[in-house]
Fold each of these.
Amino acid sequence: MNTTAAHSAADIAGIRLPGGAAVEAARLVCAEYTDKALFHHSLRSYLFGAAYAQDRGLDFDEELLYVSALLHDLGLTAPFDSHTLPFEEAGGHAARLLTAGLGWPMERRDRAAEVIVLHMRDDVPAEQDVESHLLQIGTTADVSGGGLDAFAPEFTAELMRALPRAGFGAVFLDLVRDQGTRKPDCAAAGLVRGGVAERIAANPLERL
């Protein structure tokens, strides 16, 4: 458990963090159930997505994106791992449970689960679903370095200083390989077959 990785700063790398009960609950759950590598990845995924939106003037729901980003990999952790569901679907169910306790209406709970599931699916255009698009942008940049040229080098360097990778590439690769072995038809298995190991190894963030 990552019980020491709380981040109380109002902003990271110049990107403002949202506030409120849902944001704090998602951060606490992620910090409790993930290690430092996954916790920092979850935060960076939000920040990459939010920075991308900010630079392009995209209007998005900060709370929804943050909650989805902080919970999107819970299905990779032992307490939430499903032996039948893909990890992103298990994470979506975890998000629905947490947000039910926060009093979110059904439609908004469904949206959190949808954003988490869609981050592992084919690209979603911003005009169709901006939060899913931004989580895809954020996770792709952080996992494989895809689309890093969309971000200012100064932003990326500051983000890595604030939230070090802590061996994230190797940790994530082991997790998706395990998912793919046990659930060969899931999206994680597709990542492995599609050469995610090579993309992670080539990710410039792994060398920062």
Amino acid sequence: MATVALTKDNFEETVTGNDIVLVDWWADWCGPCKQFGPTYEKSSETHTDVVYGKIDTEDQPELSAEAGIQSIPTLMAFRDGILLYSQPGALPAAALEEVISKVKELDMDEVRKQVEAEEAKAAAEAE
């Protein structure tokens, strides 16, 4: 599966409408981004059950600001619409494979319970 260009118009729908979504935040002028690109593309051909999105930070500054992107490349991993991983830096192929494996192995019922507990705690502290 090839990578998908994500924009403010299709980002949320893509992240919430698919099981696992990886997002590569990049820019054309970024050397490490260009180094990571082929690794990311090759991985997308291996994991056809994962949606691989790319967001050009120059083309999508509002989306980049909303996501708090401060360094590129940044890789994010979502599962069931929940952000599970967000890390700047170009990953070697083996590290990217490890991230994907760990995301696939997660018990999402347990993750949802943890998210709900954290949200409840934050709400209680805000009162």
Amino acid sequence: MKKGLSLTTVMVLAFLFIGGLAVYQIMNNATKYDKKHKVEATATVKKDAAEEKKEQTGYIGGVQYDINLDKSSSQEAVIEVMHKMTHQKVKAKEKWGAIPMIPDTINQVYQIVNNSKFPLKDDLLKILEKWKKGDFEEIADDHNYFWEQQGGTVGKANGTMTKAEEEIFIQNNFGDEVAKQTSTQQ
């Protein structure tokens, strides 16, 4: 009987030993797997962030320097100009066209709106007055207001660019002259 008990004991111990090794190996492999995937995930996040920055600050086309507005311009034309002005400051999946957001441009648009009889005159003046003061805290909301007025379906603003991102956008889209004007404004 002692011999049978010993054999059973040896078998149980062997089973526990093999089971322990198996659990250890599984846990070790899981740790290696987690580490590998965390590194890959971090690399993907960094790559995505770099692509996002390039997407937001790259050349978008449709750049214009002259607002092409005068006292007879329509409310829709003014909204289109103001919308394009916001593109240098907002993050959006798609952007079409850009006009420099500089004091001279803001003042030109302000004068046209101030002397108009537009149905949205009060809303537009409120936005322009913030811009004249250098207040761009709500620029994404301003963008989306114009976007909605124009019946937008793609390109809703989802945030505001950092100062550094905006500087890159300005350089890529408007060049040195506008970059100088905006650096004195900030």
Amino acid sequence: MSDVPERWSQASVYPDMWADPDADPRNNDEASPDGELATLQDYLSNYRLTLQMKCEGLDPEQLARRSVPPSTMSLLGLVRHLAEVERDWRNWILPGDPAPKLYGARDADFEGAVAEQALVDGAFADLAREQAATDAMLAEYPDLGARVGQDGTAVRELWVHRIEEYARHCGHADLLRECIDGRVGQ
């Protein structure tokens, strides 16, 4: 007997995918968005949805399961981390004192990701709230070349950085989910 789960996919059309095209909420038959901002928003939306899909169907213990020692990374930790990061991006834009950390000092987002349903529910609520707040703030800057914050960061850079952050962590989520129950797919 092995503790290593057997690899599997829910998809039957393309077995290396997470779900069949007709069942994948990221797929649509429409043309790609027009314009740079709409394209950036579409990519970010799809990566956010990918993270959510990687977490679906798992219980608190599975969501809090860490990768490999000494890493503290888990799917739940990634959710908490991305909520924290969304807040941090707003801190780059807003003048004055930054909003306080959601989960405490450095790495507390990962360290505090424990297998409790209330903590799981709170993390997903935090992520949704922080995403909405950052989206609302950036909606005030439709010019991607606009410079914001004390450092004069381009709005475009904030959008691209957000996409990069989610894309990188969706790659981690792929591996974490496969280790949990063997499910594979993009």
